[in-house]
Each structure stands twice: as structure tokens, then as C-alpha cells.
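Quick one, probably user error.
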């Protein structure tokens, strides 16, 4: 069974005002004092963000337990310093991000100007194990049309700088400003994938391979495919659902690759439109069908995803989890829907953040 690991980026916020708080360096220092060998929490581009990474897991129940445990530990460490954490993919309240101090981040700030200063967004990256780079590239070529559906499922960033953005996942639109971000062309082979990455680095527009921000890529440090399209999910259960669907997509794609079934050959332009549609609507409207790229109701597209991955979900024991999780989202709404409902009820973005802090750890 393929293992799955999750990286989540959390927003550090003041528990009283709900405003983002630049306390990442202090939180990381406290974590290092408590456990000098800890490798769970990591620095991110901004001082208002804290990232953690789970261990590779085979069972979704264990993955869910670890996500909740890491979120609570992050909240405990932050609480010792007068702040807390919220699984929000963008800050509902206005914020002026502060950069973490290192050479890499200074280079990015100088290279990309205002785009860097407007990138305080939090994502969820899912790592799924693969046997080789060749299998990994075979997977990348075959999952690409399905990735916008994961954006819609995870949508959790409706507010931007104190206003409703009109999007369910505005994070994905902000992230698309990086020059290397977004959907990629068909690679065809591991050799062609690595050649393209080397050519992108050679342009000097990006610093190194770590800045190749494809929607899905071969991970640098692990033998995994890294799927990078999801918002950080408000509820841990939604993060587990995204991980289960990502693993099922990878396994289905690997089986198709081994069987010699060709990937759907769609250009980057239509793929960008599918990503935009998912970001705009979430699950509250039409999505683009991953095969035909024509509009279909979100519920029909989710059912198509289940049909596409049914064998893989059955083999891992995740079919019921996926069916129930998608049904719950269609019934109760995504994180973006929850945030908007909270704002409708309270009229206060501060109260939205306060309640989302609670839901982050529940």
C-alpha cells in the first residue's frame, strides 16, 4: 500500500484580535528547546506562518490522528507565546506580511517584488509514495486533469485583506502569480521532466529546483509525488479526505501507466481554466469535467472522481471514507462556505477567525 504524508501550513494569529502575528521564529525556537531533534515544524516564507509535516502513513485513521496531534502541538507552542494557530488558507483580516530572515527568502523578495509581499497563503501538500521517477512521471501525466477537483474540495480562502474575494479558493489565485506555478504540460518520461526542470532553473527566473511550483511534481527529498493544489483545510477530516483521494488518484494513474493507457492530452490553457473554475466556485457551482473539460455540476464531477478511483479506494479500504467525506462537503459546505456562514451570522471577521481557531483543533 502506498504511504501518504501531509504538509500543512498554519496561520499564526492573535487569539484576541484574530490578526496574523509574526511569531514563527519564536515558536520554532521554543519547539527546538523542547525537542532539539524535532523535525515536525519548519520555517516558511513569512513570520505569520508555521508548517508541519506528518510521517508517512498507510492508514488514513492514523494520518488523521497525527494531523490533529500536530495542530494541537502547534497551538500549544504558540499559546506559550501569546498566539495560536488557525487552519486558514488566507487571512480574513488585513495583514502586512513579514519575511523570515534568510538568504533564500531575501532573494525572492528582491526578485519578485510586490508579488512576494502578497503571498501570505497557506496550502496543504500531499506526498504519495512512488517506486521510481519513471512511475512518478507516469502518474503526473495522468493525474493532472483531476487536480482542480482537489482544489474545489479543499477550498478554504474566501476572504482577502478584509474583504470577500468572490472566490472559494483565492489562495490558489494568489499562488498562481509565481512564474513556475500551475499546471504543466505532458512530460512523457522522467528524462524529459528533469530536462524541463533544469531548463527552468537555467533561466535564472527561479533560484533552484525547489522553486518549481507545478501543481504536482516529483519531490526533491522523498520518493514521492507531491500534489500541491489544496488549500490548508479548516477541518482535519477534510485534510484526510484530500489525502485519501490523492493516494487513490496516484494509484489509479500508476495502474494506467503500467497498462500502457495513454493520458488525457489537454493543453495547459484549458487546464488553467479548470483550475480557475474550481477556485472560483468550490463545490457551490459547476466544475469542468476532467475528461471533456466541459461544465458539469460539482456533485456529478465528484461522482466521476469516485468512479475513476473506485478500485484504488476499495483496495486501500478508503471507499467509505471518500464517499461519506464528499457527501458531507456537498451537504455542509467547504471551509470557504463555513467561513462565509460565520461572517453572515456574526458580521465580524474577527469572530470568523476565533471560531476557525477552535475548528482547527476539533
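Nope, works fine. Designed sequence:
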Amino acid at each position: 500500500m502506498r504511504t501518504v504524508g501531509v504538509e500543512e501550513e498554519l496561520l499564526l494569529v492573535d487569539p484576541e484580535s484574530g490578526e496574523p502575528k509574526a511569531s514563527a521564529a519564536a515558536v520554532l525556537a521554543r519547539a527546538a528547546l523542547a525537542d532539539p531533534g524535532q523535525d515536525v515544524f519548519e520555517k516558511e516564507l513569512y513570520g505569520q506562518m508555521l508548517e508541519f509535516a506528518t510521517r508517512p502513513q498507510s492508514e488514513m485513521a492514523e494520518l488523521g490522528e497525527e494531523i490533529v496531534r500536530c495542530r494541537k502541538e502547534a497551538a500549544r507552542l504558540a499559546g506559550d507565546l501569546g498566539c495560536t494557530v488557525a487552519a486558514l488558507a488566507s487571512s480574513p483580516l488585513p495583514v502586512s506580511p513579514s519575511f523570515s530572515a534568510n538568504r533564500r527568502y531575501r532573494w525572492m523578495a528582491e526578485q519578485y517584488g510586490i508579488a512576494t509581499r502578497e503571498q501570505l497563503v497557506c496550502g496543504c501538500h500531499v506526498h504519495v509514495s512512488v517506486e521510481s521517477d519513471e512511475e512518478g512521471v507516469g502518474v503526473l501525466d495522468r493525474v493532472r486533469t483531476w487536480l482542480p477537483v482537489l482544489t474545489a474540495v479543499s477550498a478554504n480562502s474566501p476572504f482577502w485583506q478584509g474583504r470577500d474575494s468572490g472566490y472559494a479558493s483565492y489562495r490558489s489565485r494568489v499562488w498562481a502569480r509565481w512564474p513556475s506555478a500551475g499546471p504543466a504540460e505532458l512530460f512523457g518520461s522522467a528524462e524529459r521532466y528533469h530536462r524541463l526542470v533544469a531548463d527552468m532553473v537555467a533561466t535564472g527566473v527561479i533560484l533552484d529546483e525547489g522553486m518549481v511550483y507545478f501543481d504536482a511534481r516529483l519531490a526533491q527529498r522523498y520518493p514521492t509525488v507531491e500534489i500541491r493544489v489544496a488549500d490548508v483545510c479548516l477541518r482535519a477530516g477534510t485534510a484526510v479526505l484530500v489525502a485519501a483521494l490523492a493516494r487513490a488518484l496516484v494509484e489509479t494513474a500508476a495502474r494506467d501507466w503500467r497498462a500502457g493507457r495513454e493520458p488525457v492530452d489537454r493543453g495547459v490553457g484549458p487546464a488553467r481554466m479548470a483550475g480557475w473554475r474550481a477556485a472560483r466556485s468550490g463545490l457551490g457551482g459547476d466544475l469542468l469535467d476532467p475528461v471533456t473539460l466541459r461544465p458539469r455540476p460539482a456533485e456529478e464531477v465528484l461522482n466521476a472522481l469516485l468512479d475513476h478511483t473506485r478500485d484504488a479506494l476499495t483496495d486501500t479500504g478508503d471507499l467509505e471514507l471518500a464517499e461519506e467525506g464528499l457527501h458531507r462537503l456537498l451537504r455542509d459546505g467547504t471551509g470557504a462556505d463555513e467561513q462565509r456562514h460565520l461572517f453572515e451570522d456574526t458580521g465580524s471577521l474577527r469572530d470568523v477567525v476565533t471560531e476557525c481557531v477552535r475548528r482547527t483543533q476539533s
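The chain is about 50% helix and 15% strand.
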